[in-house]
Amino acid sequence: MNALTINQAVKTYANGFTALKGVSFDVQQGEFFALLGANGAGKTTLISAIAGLNRLSSGSIQVMGYDVQMQSTQARMNLGLVPQELVFDPFFNVRQILQIQSGYFGIRKNNDWIDEMLHHLGLTDKANTNLRNLSGGMKRRVMVAQALVHRPPLIILDEPTAGVDVELRHSLWAFMQTLNQQGHTIILTTHYLEEAEQYCGRIAMLKQGKLVALDTTEHLLNAEQNVRIQLQLS
Ligand code: ATP
Questions:
Q1: 206 CA to middle of ligand 1, Å?
Q2: Contact indicator for 152, 78 with CB cutoff of 8 Å
Q3: CA of 23 to the centre of ligand 1 (A)
Q4: Is a pLDDT exceeding 90 seen at residue 233?
Q5: How many whole angstroms separate alpha carbon 96 and alpha carbon 119?
Q6: ABC transporter domain location, by residue (predicted)?
Q7: Which is nearest to 35 in space by CA: 190, 222, 151?
Q8: What is the pLDDT of residues 170-184, one digit of tens each?
Q9: Is 190 in the pocket of ligand 1 (CB under 6 A)?
Q10: Which of 1, 98, 194, 225 has a Cα at 20 to 30 A from 104?
Q11: What is the pLDDT of residues 18-63, one digit of tens each?
Q12: 0.80 cut: is pTM over it?
């Protein structure tokens, strides 16, 4: 079974603009995979469809074998999505937010895992701090933990390092590598080939709603000039 299967995904928005024009690819379990593309390539549209947040116009997506539209609950239980934007209720503290999110997934006792995540993300000291008193970078860390409370087999990070300080970048990548070694599948979207190159075994490249490259990082880097030009032009 694949961690993710995308079959002929097409998305046309209400204004008639087609952001995905028939995208197909698979990600196998245990991969560390990058979805690369310039602004407007369609990455967020695709991620939202994977998370069931918007409906494809046609085509299908499976998360760990579950169709995201027909079996949305099972698909959602198997996916952890770290979104680009911060969305929080600011009146709770960090531990409370993570406990509430655990409850949402039906997990009652999650403190060991919550403590482990706080440790990996450098948040242990902030466990009892109210969210409204945290810096933007700290809130981002909480968002990562929030996406992972149910230990999802598939983890997707949407541009995780945009506007993020070096220290968080390092702890985030180290944590993702640990999770990947434990068998979790990791997919990240990024504008940066360098970031994909450093961590990912395979890269898919979107350009104007189409898949224009899908290969191992090694092969793509051999055609690096070509890839860079594609990214600039898209
Ligand atoms: P970025 O790196 O800037 O986040 P992206 O690759 O994630 O870009 P998307 O956000 O998926 O790209 O956008 C793809 C295209 O779809 C863009 O041209 C965008 O303007 C368009 N688009 C996105 N959302 C909508 C919407 N709700 N209605 C109409 N067009 C939209």
A1: 12
A2: yes
A3: 15
A4: no
A5: 16
A6: 4-233
A7: 190
A8: 888 889 999 999 999
A9: no
A10: 1
A11: 999 999 999 999 999 999 988 889 999 999 999 999 999 999 999 9
A12: yes
- Asked if 136 contacts 125 with a C-beta cutoff of 8 angstroms, the reply is no
Interatomic CA distance for residues 117 and 127, integer angstroms:
11
Distance 60 CA to ligand 1 centre (A): 19
* Predicted ipTM of the assembly: 0.95
CA distance 158 to 144: 11
* Residue identifier of the C-alpha nearest atom 21 of ligand 1: 19
- Residue 175: alpha-carbon gap to chain centroid: 14
199, amino acid identity: Y
Q: Is 45 in the pocket of ligand 1 (CB under 6 A)?
A: yes
- DSSP letter for each residue of the chain: -EEEEEEEEEEE-TTS-EEEEEEEEEEETT-EEEEE--TTSSHHHHHHHHTTSS--SEEEEEETTEETTTTHHHHHHTEEEE-SS----TTSBHHHHHHHHHHHTT-S--HHHHHHHHHHTT-GGGTTSBGGGS-HHHHHHHHHHHHTTT--SEEEEESTTTT--HHHHHHHHHHHHHHHHTT-EEEEEES-HHHHHHH-SEEEEEETTEEEEEEEHHHHHHTHHHHHHHHHH-
